[in-house]
Amino acid sequence: MTRTWFLPWILAAVAVLAWPAEDMLAARRHQERSEPPPPMISGDTRMLVIAPHPDDEVLAAGGLMQQVHEAGGMVRVIYLTDGDGFPEGVKLEDRRHAITYVDYRGYGRRRQNEARTALTALGLEKTDALFLGFPDSGLCKLIRAYWSDHRSAYRSPYTRLTRPPVSERTAPETAYRGEDLTQEIAAILATFRPTLVLVPRKEDQHPDHSAAWYFLVDALGDVHRVSPDFSTDVLTYIVHYNDWPFADGTAALPAPPGLRGGASGWIRVALTPAQVRAKKSALRKYRTQVRAMAWFLDGFVRSNEIFSRPTPASTNVVLPLKHGVCW
User: Fold this and answer.
1) In the 3-class helix/strand/coil scheme, how is 263-274 assigned residue by residue?
2) Bridge-based pairing state of the strands 46-51 and 196-200
3) Of the ranges 2-16, 27-41, 78-92, which is most confident?
4) Over the stretch 160-190, which tens digit does the pLDDT of each residue have?
5) Cα four-point dihedral sign 290, 296, 299, 301
6) Distance between alpha carbon 40 and the CA centroid of its chain, in Å?
7) Which fold has domain 39-323?
8) Average pLDDT across the chain, whole number
9) Degrees (nearest 5) of the Cα angle 77, 65, 288?
């Protein structure tokens, strides 16, 4: 078989090597000057972090959450699911192959407790955690096939539940439907009135993460219709994108190759050594996840975190969620 397919890569590499060093340095300085600044943080900041699963909040924003807290601001974390639909993790915990819905539910409770403990490692309170209890690995299905009460609620194949536990509902009739999750998020937005919201990018390759973006957009539309004066800054983060960031061993977290930084460009938030240590300590509180994939958690313990801003107009309209894209 001929190998001419990789000739363009060789030519590109030669071109880079031939580029004068001073030109490369000038280009790097231009890039640094053109990068958008990090979000303004103060004692008035009210940051809401939307995490599809327990640990996503620390992976993406463990440092930024500390910065808001240290500035005197407020942080709340919404966990859309309890992360209970992880068969490999449940098997590691219970050490048996025949696992039941009881095991999955117990695993979810463990992850909730880990999340509360992780927040305290960042200097926050356990009460800063809000668990909505929607189905792990089922959020995209709520968009595609279980949106309204025109059909039965979605049933988790893991926990066998069709609605969140009573303690995790803001409305008694809440069930596993897309509209219900939107209303839960909208109620929190209207009550907490965040000045800054963090949410996964729609390009995140985990279906629950991609779906989280659409639910936030729909909830923002609901709140805006009732309170037209409500506005908030939205930053997006990413956790799952090909082999990023594990193919890069640098101290700084790079942007995912091939993914543009949204409307803003990639926003880099530098962390102090103390904030990096606290972030690593918080991730270690997720013992169930450390047992299953410590390498994954460690890949996000870097000297910075990265975010991006979506197009402003896209957070003020209701997207056609039934036809939304989920990976």
Assistant:
1) CCCCEEEECCHH
2) parallel
3) 78-92
4) 999 999 888 878 899 999 999 999 999 999 9
5) negative
6) 20
7) Rossmann fold (3.40.50)
8) 87
9) 60
User: Taking the domains of the chain in order of start, what are their residue ranges?
Assistant: 39-323
Q: Given a cut of 80, is residue 313 above it in pLDDT? A: no
Tell me the Ramachandran region of residue 137: left when phi exceeds 0, alpha when psi lies from -120 to 50, beta otherwise: left
Helices (H), 4-156: 7-18, 21-34, 56-70, 87-94, 101-121, 139-144
Beta strands in the chain (DSSP E): 46-51, 74-81, 129-134, 196-200, 233-237, 267-270, 304-307
The HSE-up count of residue 63 (CA atoms within 13 Å, CB side) is: 24
| Tokens (6 digits) for 309 | 């801003």
Contacts of 125 by beta carbon, 8 Å cutoff, 6+ apart: 119
Is residue 196 within 8 Å of 39, Cβ to Cβ?
Answer: yes
Farthest CA pair distance, the chain? 67
Question: Of 167, 110, 131, which Cα lies nearest the Cα of 286?
Answer: 110
150 compared with 194, residue with greater pLDDT: 194
**Dist. CA 260–CA 194, nearest whole Å:** 26
Q: Which two tokens stand for residue 7?
A: 């000739």
CB 287 within 8 A of CB 83: no
pLDDT category at 316 given cuts 50, 70, 90 is very low
Which is nearest to 233 in space by CA: 38, 35, 39? 39
What 3-state DSSP class applies to 96?
Answer: coil
- Rounded CA gap, 317 and 313, in Å? 7
Residue with tokens 């000045």: 195
Tokens of 269: 């938030």
